[in-house]
Amino acid sequence: MKLESFWQATAPAFSGAASDPLPSQADVVVIGGGFTGVSAALSLARSGLSVVLLESGEVMSQASSRNGGHCNTGVAHNFAALVASQGLEQASRFYRAFDDAVSYVEQLVRDERIDCDFRLCGKLKLASKATHLAGLREAAELMRRTVDPEIELLDKAAVRQEIGSDDFHGGLLQKRGGQMHMGKFGVGLANAAARSGAKIYPHHPVTRLERLSGYQHRVHTDQGVILADKVLMATGCSNVGPFPWFQRRIVPVGSFIVVTETLDEDLLRQVLPHDRTYVTSLNIGNYFRSTADRRLVFGGRARFAVSNPTSDSRSGEILRRAMTQMFPQLSNTSLAYCWGGMVDMTADRLPHAGEQDGLFYSLGYSGHGTQMSVWMGRLMADLLAEKQTENPWQRASWPALPGYHGKPWFLPLAGLYYKAKDRLS
């Protein structure tokens, strides 16, 4: 079993890195080479602006190519609960933004001719307990009336036709969910940005940000200094760089994934007859899907731990047990890949985007960011280029987490809390 991301290991190399020295000036400097940053760089370059993207490591090396490979519509929350906390108008706005984001990813794949196995397959949220089905039913009725007339609530028998497991009591089917090969998509997007004129510099961590006036900053790296008219922060939960304001609001939470060896076609059809993306209803649950070469990708918050080789291998064993408990027919299946990554969680589990002290940002996708990060890259680019002012994730305030300064000391306690909630639900 290889302790590396399947998406990274099976993607082509990024070929568009800038070879010339850092320029002394740019209209926009983008910090972060994941989906948000690269998508923004693509749109900014096509707007005629000079754009420099600075990435501390390799392009697409963090959350954008270390996730579960889902590209789903709808919010991660139970929609009824989101309406209760945000109001129907705001919750509907958030929901439709995710729908638009999936459509935008689909458009990019088509327009840029990115070979990434993209397909719309539907997302099925599975009720892990009988009591969870009532919550899914309430959400389905509300969503059908307000934001998604095609949504379906499935009973236990219907779910058993959808998935080769007896563990579930029903499910919520959203028909426009999708999936793709994250590594291939990310590299294709980055190459498109470079072709359009964006200058992309891997291994250029920002060491200092010096605000001059308004939105203008002097951006310092070990390889040079750039005068930027505007700066966009797109770093996710990375602690690389002088960004304490953001680090007090983003909590890095580990999520872990295993990928099986290639499965026999009949076996895969037994496990996932309709071949969708799937997520369970537990707070500490699982998510899974197949790949184009007939593997099962199976992930979850196996442990409240950071990602490293020791942690990843232990988490892989936990995930293997969960996978074979759910699908006993996979008990003799070998694992080919195992890895972990960090999810940029916010207190409300919603993205935040806007401007703080002259610095623009889009962060905090909270485990539901493939589609939204790509879409927000374009939206933030349009804001920076002064093409629009609409931003669904701009809030009046984004308070820091009390007692938190970037090191999530409370994660073990959070893990115990959510495990208890799952047991009692």
From TrEMBL:
InterPro entries: FAD-dep_OxRdtase, FAD/NAD-bd_sf
Name of the featured protein: FAD-binding oxidoreductase
UniProt keyword Mitochondrion present: no
Family matches, as Pfam families: DAO (PF01266)
A GO cellular component entry from the record: cytoplasm
Single GO MF descriptor: oxidoreductase activity
Key words of the record: Oxidoreductase
Domain FAD dependent oxidoreductase stretches: 27-383
Lineage, uppermost ranks: Bacteria, Pseudomonadati, Pseudomonadota, Gammaproteobacteria, Enterobacterales
